[in-house]
Design brief:
Layout: H1 10-23, E1 36-38, E2 44-46, H2 48-64, H3 74-77, H4 80-86, H5 89-97, H6 101-108, H7 110-128
Helix pairs in contact: 1-2, 1-7, 2-4, 6-7
């Protein structure tokens, strides 16, 4: 079963966006020019799309357990670019910033990346009420 259609459901879309925002809540968890980078301490830093990828993985793992990924390549399909498209962050970033989400992340910086996520979370919440 593909998880991609589940990403567009309101509760999953908001859960993924909120989790990604939580992951990026500290600048120590944020990076540019890569989906994720391993830190010397063994943790990871994420760009906005890497945080979406991690958030979708966490959500699927929480909902279905480790068996969700056993014997399949589905985890490979949970990449930040596809998730960004599925939750429509690309549309928002183009409308607000005239660039892709990773363009906001890599060129406009940490604060603007958080502002983009916060603005989009607010927009999704309002659309769904």
């Amino acid at each position: 079963m593909s998880f991609a259609p589940e990403l567009t459901k309101k509760e999953n879309r908001l859960a993924i966006l909120r989790r990604a925002r939580e992951i990026l809540s500290s600048p120590l968890n944020w990076t540019t020019n890569d989906l994720r980078k391993k830190t010397p301490g063994g943790g990871y830093q994420y760009c906005v799309l890497g945080a979406l990828e991690r958030a979708a993985y966490d959500l699927r793992l929480a909902n279905e357990g480790p068996a969700a990924f056993a014997g399949s390549e589905e985890s490979d399909n949970l990449n930040g670019y596809k998730i960004g498209e599925a939750v429509s962050l690309y549309d928002y970033s183009y409308a607000e910033y005239d660039r892709k989400p990773y363009g906001v992340n890599d060129t406009l910086g940490y604060e603007e990346t958080l502002k983009m996520l916060d603005g989009y979370i607010d927009k999704v919440q309002l659309q769904e009420e």
